[in-house]
Design goal:
Strand order of the largest sheet: 6-5-4-3-2-1-7-8-9
InterPro entries: 4Fe4S-binding_SPASM_dom, AdoMet-like_SPASM_containing, Aldolase_TIM, Radical_SAM_PqqE_MftC-like, rSAM, rSAM_sf
Number of strands: 9
Helix content: 25-40%
Shape: globular
Radius of gyration: 20 Å
Keywords: 4Fe-4S, Iron, Iron-sulfur, Metal-binding, S-adenosyl-L-methionine
Largest sheet: 9 strands, mixed
Protein name: Radical SAM protein
Oligomer: single chain
Structural class: alpha/beta
Order of helices and strands: HHHHEHEHEHEHHEHEHEEEHH
Cofactor: [4Fe-4S] cluster
Domain Radical SAM core: 60-277
Length: 350
């Protein structure tokens, strides 16, 4: 691994500082999406330079950020998720999981995210998977709705170690709003699970995960977001207020066309459709073993660049699918791609 450049270190520190405040994140998004900024030669040069550096790092052999979808199945039917509209189930075969962890560890991937579009703790072999990740010398993180995080399970995970981060998806503050957005989950049970986990974390003698509580901005919850932030900010490491997406058009029940106080995670046609960082930085392995570079594809599942049932992680990441997509983005031809060209998300290069 090469050492970070001074500018890279400054960007990382700036990113952490901004991420610590929901208000700062909202302001940064508005600035980054400003058509006036995006039209400037300096901004376009910055993005192209960052993309070129990412491409050079891939060619030098740097591994990606890796997500393994242990389960696609979810026990919630959240209104902003495609799980609310159609059945999506699946569990990653344990032999495939072990092989992928072994490949990742040998490749130099030192940490893995163990969730993409399902609730990881519905998996009966969840602890067994964590034990295998730890035996491979890797750390892990994941996203969860916290509905199944019992004190016993949390204590076992803390004792096992290597749990670096967790993002709890909590999309409402009041009982009425939470349970309308995240059926059939119960607000008091979930809030209680998180509070009990935070107590265990405080009492644990070893390393503990950083905790983010996140909420997607919706018409249903937008009026209680200030109260949501006030409640969680003293309790956790970070509060994240995300913008809504329609999962590349897969979500039918969407207020995407009607901005919720400017908080939808889309861009208008006047914005420059920038090269996306994902083809260089990210690798999502779905429960069936297929690979995508993009979390926005998690519902559509058509941006498939390889299959780990056939090829290794390294072969896919350096293979023709990833290479062709990077070339298209690098040379400002994202708009010509059948999926990326219709994507309204413009991730920042920071």
């Amino acid at each position: 691994m090469t050492s970070a450049s001074p500018s890279g270190g400054l960007l990382a520190r700036a990113r952490r500082l901004v991420a610590s405040s929901p208000a700062a994140v909202a302001l940064a998004k508005r600035v980054y999406r400003s058509p006036r900024l995006q039209r400037t030669p300096a901004f376009r040069s910055f993005v192209r330079t960052r993309a070129a550096r990412a491409d050079a790092a891939v060619r030098a052999g740097a591994p990606p950020q890796l997500w393994l979808e242990t389960v696609l199945t979810c026990n919630a039917r959240c209104s902003m998720c495609v799980h609310s509209e159609r059945k999506m189930v699946g569990v990653m075969d344990m032999d495939l999981f072990r092989r992928l962890v072994d490949e990742a560890s040998a490749w130099g991937v030192d940490s893995v995210c163990l969730s993409i579009y399902g609730e990881p703790m519905v998996d009966r072999r969840w602890l067994e998977r964590l034990q295998y990740v730890r035996m491979a010398g890797m750390t892990y993180n994941f996203f969860s709705n916290a509905s199944m995080l019992t004190p016993e399970l949390a204590a076992a995970m803390l004792e096992l170690g290597g749990w670096t981060d967790v993002n709890f998806s909590v999309n409402g503050f009041s009982k009425a709003v939470y349970e309308a957005v995240m059926p059939p989950l119960a607000r008091e049970r979930v809030y209680g699970n998180i509070e009990r986990f935070l107590e265990l974390r405080r009492a644990h003698a070893g390393a503990v995960p950083r905790v983010t509580v996140s909420c997607v901005t919706l018409a249903e919850n937008v009026d209680e977001l200030p109260e949501f932030v006030r409640y969680w900010r003293p309790r956790v490491d970070r509060v994240s207020i995300a913008d809504r997406t329609d999962w590349l058009g897969e979500l039918k029940k969407t207020d995407r066309a009607v901005p919720v106080r400017g908080r939808l995670r889309v861009m208008d046609d006047s914005q420059w459709q920038t090269p996306c960082p994902a083809p260089w930085h990210k690798m999502y392995v779905y429960a069936d073993g297929r690979v995508s570079p993009c979390c926005e594809d998690a519902a559509l599942r058509q941006l498939i660049l390889g299959d780990t049932n056939v090829h290794t992680l390294r072969q896919i990441y350096h293979g023709p699918g990833y290479t062709a997509l990077r070339e298209q983005h690098l040379h400002d031809r994202r708009g010509q791609h059948r999926i990326c060209g219709g994507c309204r998300v413009n991730p920042p290069w920071i």
